[in-house]
Specification:
17% helix; five-stranded mixed β-sheet; Ubiquitin-like (UB roll); two-stranded antiparallel ribbon; single chain; 3 helices
Length: 118
């Protein structure tokens, strides 16, 4: 099990290998995922306080780079919970007024090609 701490929300245990976006949602966090967890919209982004993963998907890197967010945020839909981490939410359904979006699949989409983060 991995422990995920969400600032101002608490700490919870998640199944190792779970997608962070689904772990957050399963813990009652109203995280956005407008594109359905496809690494396209960046509404599921988080900031890492501790435990940022060393790897990311090529899809995550491409969208973060295109939107000028590379190095300042990560996409929770592209992160596996394989160790303890602490995150800060950037957007939620309640603070944005948006609906969460289509439910993400259990496994990372698109098929992940892993790279070392910059």
């Amino acid at each position: 099990m991995a422990r995920v701490t969400v600032e101002e929300r608490g700490t919870f245990e998640v199944q190792e290998g779970a997608r962070l976006v689904l772990a957050l949602e399963g813990a009652g966090v109203d995280v956005l995922h407008r594109c359905g967890g496809q690494a396209r919209c960046t509404t599921c982004r988080v900031e890492f306080v501790a435990g940022e993963p060393e790897r990311m998907t090529e899809a995550e890197r491409a969208v973060l780079e295109a939107k000028g967010l590379l190095g300042s945020a990560r996409l929770s839909c592209q992160i596996e919970c394989d160790h303890d981490m602490t995150v800060r939410l950037v957007q939620t359904a309640s603070n944005s007024g948006l609906e969460p979006g289509k439910a993400p699949a259990e496994h990372i989409e698109p098929e992940p090609v892993w790279i070392t983060r910059p």
